[in-house]
Amino acid sequence: METRESEDGGFIRRRRRCGGCDKRFTTYERPEVSFPTIVKKDGRRIEYERAKLLGSFQIALRKRPVSTERIDKAIDRIEDKLLNHGTREIDSSRLGELVMEELKGMDKIGYIRFASVYRSFEDVDDFRNIMDEVRNPSP
Known about the structure:
5 helices; alpha+beta
């Protein structure tokens, strides 16, 4: 048997030989991880889905000069925080804050777009406040 780990450590590739027919075949093994359940504002509980998180980033960063690699790394950092959170559930509001933290350092326009939806801006003053926050970040 020949075993190799992928470059990013995401899976293990094994070349094996069938004991019955002596043919060779490949298997890929991935670790099974368990993300916390997301608790929505209305109390519903849903499974974490990377695709939903990616969709949020893509909407916020639409037509912005941010590479797919940067988005993937941001999502990886969020997933690391979720896995290290140490609980079986996490509020959706906390997940939203993690997204905002990543967007703030990545692209100010994307950050404002996401914040306007996430925080349910209702008037121009809400936009003005977040723009002031972006212009004059606190230390």
